[in-house]
């Protein structure tokens, strides 16, 4: 048997780091609530390795340099009023980056806020919406908060694809919105433009719009795929600087859609969303106008961590511990853990016994999987994945000998 660090003695014992932490952590129902609870416990003990992160490590040096540039005397002219529509420089930079018109863009305080604004405009309590599964749970929870009747749209197969016929079967006369992600969260798989166009055509015949959460989309910039809102008039994009750039501190998000709908979204949410931050969106304008240091940051990280992930992923798959195919882009993946149906219990055991933090598939609507994030320091990722490999192998050995 080839273990995580080379040939492994099947009789050897795995290293253990027992933690006296609350058993209730993995009883929390949603990923959003779980991650908030976890971050409230930070900093974690030094031996803990976290494998659940869904973003790139924050580029603090690059961000500090931009902040100095913006607020060195004289203060940048990007520091302007955002009341009403948002920072004009952010809008102009986004229009150029994604090849859309400025009147298609609505600035928001992050992607989740953007989703909520779209739901507020398009969905009335009692209306029907479809949310992909497996899914990022915020898409589901925001829809339910709006009072929608939420149904699932299943992604299947090795590439977590959506069958257009399946979409057609799930649509109802009052289906107002379909919510999906691209890159798919939690799997990281890319939906090609042609696939989205097929889905958009099916939805259009029903008078239904599709919202595409593209917070991971820029990871696939070299794929040649376009902003989802350019694919069809009934497709809406939401995005932010959080995942690819790691700039969650700026709370900068946006909506891209048909100009008439953009005006409607702004108008309908005027009494709910009073505007984005003048300060952070001034910084965001500089980031978007000169993105090279931030693009270089995430590429450098993934160029270092991707080989680490591939080595451990392939070794665990060869040992029959996991199954799946790594996505071509992004910083997350969603392998199946073979022989395990309760990945919530598995994650609890790994947390308490191994000092590993894993996001179980139950959080995303698909037990038996875990979501792994690899936008972190390569040495910590290497140690964490080695620990996971050893623990999964020891667990299987214990089950077989029982």
UniProtKB/TrEMBL annotation:
Q: Which residues cross the membrane?
A: none
Return the PANTHER family for the record.
Answer: AMINOTRANSFERASE FUNCTION, HYPOTHETICAL (EUROFUNG)
Q: Which InterPro entries match?
A: Aminotransferase_I/II_large (IPR004839), PyrdxlP-dep_Trfase (IPR015424), PyrdxlP-dep_Trfase_major (IPR015421), PyrdxlP-dep_Trfase_small (IPR015422)
Coiled-coil annotated residue ranges, if any: none
Q: Which residues form the Aminotransferase class I/classII large domain?
A: 86-388
Output this protein's name: Pyridoxal phosphate-dependent aminotransferase
Keyword terms? Aminotransferase, Transferase
Task: List the GO molecular function terms.
Answer: pyridoxal phosphate binding; transaminase activity
- Which species is this UniProt entry from? Marinicauda pacifica
The answer, when asked if Transferase is one of the entry's keywords, is: yes
